[in-house]
Amino acid sequence: MSVRTYLKDFVALIFPELCQACGCSLVNGEDMICMNCVYDLPYTNFHQQKDNVVARQFWGRIDLQLVYVLLYFTKGGKVQNMMHQFKYKNMPRIGNRLGEIAGKQLGATPAYQTIDVVIPVPLHPKKLKLRGYNQSDHFAQGLAVKMNIQVDCENLIRLKHTQTQTKKSRFSRYENMKEVFSVKKPEKLAGKHVLLVDDIVTTGSTLEACGIELLKIPGLTLSIAAIAYAE
């Protein structure tokens, strides 16, 4: 056993790394989520269901090629635990790990082989400065690693710092998101199949607003992916 491994194991005894889903101690080889939870999380399997419930939410709103969500979100469940740590407790690596799990699913699914680039839903600079990171960036990075494609975190930008969407109706959310996003260099995305990613899907108004801007680009094909779906 090397000195580095010995020190790491010693520190782990005093400050054990915990699974961000269930709170149990991680063992060697586990990263952020224990293997029990990796196998037991509430997966949607939407990569196998083109006309899934989230895809149907966007029918008649924007033209999407593929719609994917990794997990179901339920109050008090493991996914809520992870998302709380991810968004509010300075644990961005949770997003990378979940992105890797999602990327493994999508990378093995033929329909997703045509995707050229992953683009995360951007935060406004004020919110980014307050939080310190964009959670969608980290999910996008994990996805891209496993799918062996590029990430573009710079081209799609947020122009307005909008009010919280939590207690708004679907129509109010849509109105709140009008003209919020813009694309700096649309020519870089012309003719590309873009995978737009976010953390949690509820009404889909944020993804819709981003998608409207992206679909103005000639020849662009749009798909979306997210970590969790809250019914």
From TrEMBL:
Keywords (A to Z) from UniProt: Glycosyltransferase, Transferase
Domain Phosphoribosyltransferase span(s) in chain numbering: 165-217
Keyword Glycosyltransferase: yes
The keyword Glycosyltransferase is annotated on this UniProt entry: yes
GO MF, any single term: glycosyltransferase activity
PANTHER family for the chain: DNA UTILIZATION PROTEIN YHGH
Family: Belongs to the ComF/GntX family.
The protein, known as: Phosphoribosyltransferase
Source organism of this protein record: Mucilaginibacter paludis DSM 18603
